[in-house]
Design brief:
It is built from eight helices and no strands. It is mainly α and 230 residues long. It folds into two domains: 59 residues, no CATH class; 151 residues. Helix 1 crosses helix 4 and helix 5 runs antiparallel to helix 6.
Length: 230
């Protein structure tokens, strides 16, 4: 029995948790330290080693219950990290795209033909999606800090963060698809080749799609961390 009891307990607990690696390792380290301290306390009272380990584990609590508590903490930290990442990455993506457009493409008035009014509306709406999504992420972070002082369950805030992150990514992706389809639609009216053949624009656009894919994965994992809690 002995030390293996603690190892088995920590191992089983770790196998049930999902979240940021460092946060998870910190929780497991705290658990092991607490169990070790409890064992030492029992040993000082004259309890034999095997029984001390058994009592320490029993006193700490069933793995099922502890896993739920820890998973809530991990879900909240993952949600906060996801929203923080979105609040930084989305505006940065837009700024890089606009900067490269002005440097290597120019304004729409420089193109070969007039740009339809409906296209400008779609372009402006697409420009707003990243900023709005980033603003919502920041608002959710602030609201989460406020709600955490009340009786709102941590897991509820974590699920909200995951849902907001996933919805924001979907909206931004749809905005990008819409502007891409609209650009192809008016390709005969403007010098589409300047946009398609500009290496800097191609790199920035490709990078934006990669970043959106990574944000989508992050949002899905965030939601998964929050929904596995029973």
């Amino acid at each position: 029995m002995g030390p293996s009891v603690i190892d088995d307990y920590v191992g089983e607990l770790g196998g049930r948790l999902r979240g940021l690696k460092n946060a998870k390792l910190d929780l497991l380290a705290e658990t092991r330290d607490s169990l070790t301290d409890a064992v030492e306390a029992y040993l000082r009272k004259g309890v034999d080693e095997a029984e001390a380990h058994r009592r320490a584990v029993a006193e700490f609590g069933p793995v099922d219950e502890i896993a739920v508590e820890y998973q809530e903490e991990l879900a909240v930290s993952y949600g906060a990290r996801t929203l923080q990442t979105m609040a930084i990455v989305l505006p940065l993506m837009h700024m890089l795209w606009e900067l490269n457009r002005w440097l290597f493409i120019g304004s729409w008035s420089d193109f070969r033909g007039p740009v339809p009014h409906w296209y400008i509306l779609i372009a402006k709406a697409n420009d707003m999606t990243g900023g709005v999504a980033a603003g919502v992420a920041i608002a959710a972070l602030i609201a989460g800090r406020y709600l955490s002082r009340g009786r709102t369950r941590a897991i509820t805030m974590a699920r909200l963060a995951g849902g907001i992150a996933m919805l924001s990514v979907v909206v931004v992706i749809l905005g990008n698809i819409a502007i891409a389809a609209a650009t192809v639609q008016i390709g005969a009216q403007i010098d589409l080749g300047r946009l398609a053949l500009s290496p800097p624009m191609f790199v920035v656009t490709a990078g934006s799609w990669v970043a959106l894919g990574m944000l989508g994965v992050l949002a899905r994992r965030c939601l998964s961390c929050a929904t596995i809690v029973s």
